[in-house]
Amino acid sequence: MNEEKKCLQCGNALNGRSDKRFCSDQCRAQSHNARRQQNAGELLMLRINAILRRNRTILRQASPQGKTTTYRQLLQIAGFDFRHFTHTYSTKGGNTYQFCYDYGYLLLPEEKVLIVNWQPYMEK
User: Do residues 58 and 101 make contact, with C-beta atoms less than 8 angstroms apart?
Assistant: First the structure.
């Protein structure tokens, strides 16, 4: 007698291929996400990536033309986290820009921040 195979996520009967483990893409994704959330390192990465995406969105909204000066406090009020960035760019003049993907910023005197877009000449 053949035992009916069941979805590993929801328990519904499986139809189709003999090596099928999930009844739908949704069940497969839910199972994968549940396994990933059990790993503390994965949770940390998800949290940091969310912060980086939020930082980039705030920079993009604050600088729609690509180069703008604003106040540090305005970015912080919007939820910007200055501790997290993807990479840095140092100029020949000694300035160091922190980037969140393709938007960067330079901390200026008097609590000001210069926001810039990544440019091709910045490649190393």
Answer: no
User: Residues 85-117: pLDDT tens digits?
Assistant: 999 999 999 999 999 999 999 999 999 999 999
Q: Would the pTM count as exceeding 0.85?
A: no
Backbone dihedral region for residue 11 (phi beyond 0: left; psi -120 to 50: alpha; all else: beta): left
* Domain that includes residue 95, residue range: 41-122
- Residue 13 forms part of a structural domain: no
